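Z., the sequence and structure:
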Amino acid sequence: MDKLIMRLPIILIGPGLLFLSCDPEESFQDHLYQRVFKNVSNQEIKLVYHSLGNGGDGTVTDTLVLAPNTKKQDFFESGYSSDGVKGADYPLIIEDNVSVYNTTAREVPKFQLYLGNEFIKEWSGIADYLGDEINSPYNFNSWEIMKFEEILEPDYNLFIYGEIIFTITNTDIE
């Protein structure tokens, strides 16, 4: 009996030490790539995103203004995906993140590209692999992944592995 009492602290402490040796903070947080829009044209552009309001009530419009040769994170839709991040399954990461823009029967969401106040083009549809010839936020092939060398942990306790980037060029605004 004395042997059991002497071993009891080891039995009780042992699993706790094992649990502490894991990285529980990262295990229970979201892992993501940020969606980013990049303007490599020589002019300032405006990207207007139309989406359904909460619960499908009306249309919500968000605008992202990009100076020449800049990029900005998109806050148009939530739902960044963590699927496949640790396994570097880049096609799956792009598919999960871009599919949030899919068009519904009510013809929204959609993107409109403006140069100043001049309407240039509109993108809508169902996200798919459309080849390298079509540059569209709805084309999985139009997005690229930039993996960060070090994982970022912003103030809101998310682990950011990199960026998913859609690039707008001079060809898009001609």
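The two ends are 86 Å apart (CA to CA). Residues 16-28 have pLDDT under 50 and may be disordered.

Let me know what you think.
H.
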